[in-house]
From TrEMBL:
Protein name: AMP nucleosidase
Source organism phylogeny: Bacteria, Pseudomonadati, Thermodesulfobacteriota, Desulfuromonadia, Geobacterales
EC number of this enzyme: 3.2.2.4
A biological process from GO: cytokinin biosynthetic process
InterPro entries, sorted: LOG, LOG_fam, LOG_family_nucleotidases
GO-annotated molecular function: AMP nucleosidase activity
C-alpha cells in the first residue's frame, strides 16, 4: 500500500489514531502521526538494514535530547567549544573555568561536550548543577569528565550530527576556545548556520589565549577569505574575538539587552524586543540599514501576528517587522547590535 501524509490511508490512519489514543498523553498528535507515517514509509522504501538503523537511532537520540533539555527551556544557555587536550594547569583551562563560573553566577547554564580539557573546564566552572554534557562515543579522549559522570544532564551520542544539533539548537550563545580539528569544525559550522540564517542569531565569542590563536586565524580570514571575495565584510559582525573572559560575558549579555528573539512569518521578519522602540529609533534603523529590508518597504512596529499565537509566553513583547531580503544575515547581526543601543 502506498502511504500518504494526507488522510487517505483509510484503515492505516484509523490504526495510527487508535495507537496514539491508547498510548495516551501524546502532544501535537498530528505531527506524531506524520512521524509514524514517515517510519512506515521508510520501512517500505528501504531494505538496507544500516540505513534503517541510522534513521531509528537518530530519532531515539533526538527524542532523548529533547527530554533532557525541555525542563530547562527557559534557562539561558551557553555552549562552550575547545580542545580536549588542554591541561588543567594551562591558562586557557583556567580562563574557561573563570568564564563559566561568571556565567553560572548570573544564572546561565553551560553546555559542553562532556569530555576532558576545555569541556571539563566549562563544567568545573559552572558546577554540575548548572551544566549539560553532550558527549560522543569515541575510541579515545571522550570519556565523561568527573564533573558530569552520572549527571542526569549527560547525553552520549553515537552520531556527531545529532550532537551538533544539540550544541546549537539549545544554546543562546556560543563561546569557542582554541582547539584542533574538532573545535574548528564546530566553530565553522556555527559561522555557516548564522551566515545562512539556518539558526537564530546568537553571539559567537572566540576567546583567545596569550599566543593569539584567534588573532592568527583572523589574519587568515581577512587576507585569504575576505581578500579573495569568499566572504563579505558584513560577516565580521557574526563574531567577536577577546582575550578577556569578563568581556566575553559582557558580549553575551549585551546581545540580549533589548533584542529578545525573532521569527519569520510568511515573508516578514518579526523581531521581538525587551522594550519598545520609538518611531525615531526605527527611522534611525531604516537610514543606517537600508540594505536589510526590501526596497520600497518600511520597518514598522507591530502587534503579535495571528501566526505567533503558538508562543503565548512571548505575546506581551513589543516587536518590529520588516521585509528581510535573506541576503544579509551578517548585517542582521549588526542590526541587532544597533537595536541594543537604544
Amino acid at each position: 500500500m502506498q502511504l500518504s501524509f494526507n488522510r487517505t490511508n483509510k484503515e492505516i490512519d484509523e490504526a495510527i489514531d487508535s495507537l496514539i489514543g491508547k498510548a495516551g498523553g501524546v502532544h501535537h498528535q498530528e505531527l506524531v502521526r506524520e512521524m509514524i507515517i514517515s517510519a512506515l514509509k521508510a520501512g517500505q522504501d528501504t531494505d538496507y538494514l544500516a540505513d534503517l538503523k541510522l534513521l531509528s537511532n537518530t530519532m531515539k537520540e533526538m527524542r532523548y535530547t529533547n527530554k533532557v533539555f525541555s525542563p530547562y527551556r527557559h534557562r539561558t544557555k551557553v555552549t562552550i567549544f575547545g580542545s580536549a587536550r588542554t591541561e588543567p594547569q594551562e591558562e586557557a583551562y583556567q580562563k574557561c573555568v573563570r568564564f563559566s563560573r561568571l556565567l553560572a553566577d548570573k544564572g546561565y547554564m553551560i553546555i559542553t561536550g562532556g569530555g576532558p580539557g576545555i569541556m571539563q573546564a566549562g563544567n568545573e566552572g559552572a558546577g554540575s548543577e548548572s551544566s549539560f554534557a553532550v558527549n560522543i562515543r569515541l575510541p579515545f579522549e571522550q570519556a565523561p569528565n568527573p564533573f558530569m559522570l552520572a549527571n542526569p544532564r549527560l547525553i552520549t551520542y553515537k552520531y556527531f550530527f545529532n550532537r551538533k544539533v544539540a550544541f546549537v539548537k539549545e544554546a543562546d550563545a556560543i563561546a569557542v576556545f582554541p582547539g584542533g580539528f574538532g573545535t574548528l569544525d564546530e566553530a565553522m559550522e556555527v559561522f555557516t548556520l548564522i551566515q545562512t540564517g539556518k539558526t537564530s542569531p546568537k553571539p559567537l565569542v572566540l576567546i583567545d589565549d596569550d599566543d593569539g590563536y584567534w588573532e592568527q586565524w583572523f589574519i587568515f580570514i581577512k587576507e585569504r577569505m575576505l581578500g579573495r571575495g569568499f566572504i563579505s565584510a558584513e560577516d565580521f559582525s557574526i563574531f567577536t574575538i577577546t582575550r578577556s573572559e569578563k568581556e566575553a560575558v559582557k558580549v553575551i549579555e549585551d546581545f540580549y539587552r533589548n533584542y529578545h528573539s525573532l521569527r519569520f512569518v510568511n515573508r516578514r521578519l518579526i523581531i521581538r524586543l525587551n522594550k519598545e522602540l520609538s518611531r525615531a529609533n526605527i527611522d534611525e534603523l531604516e537610514k543606517e540599514f537600508p540594505e536589510l529590508h526590501n526596497s520600497g518597504t518600511k520597518i514598522i512596529s507591530t502587534a503579535p501576528l495571528q501566526e505567533e499565537q503558538d508562543e503565548p509566553d512571548l505575546l506581551d513583547l513589543p516587536r518590529i517587522a520588516l521585509q528581510f531580503d535573506h541576503q544579509h544575515y551578517g548585517l542582521l547581526m549588526a542590526f541587532i547590535g544597533r537595536i541594543n543601543m537604544f
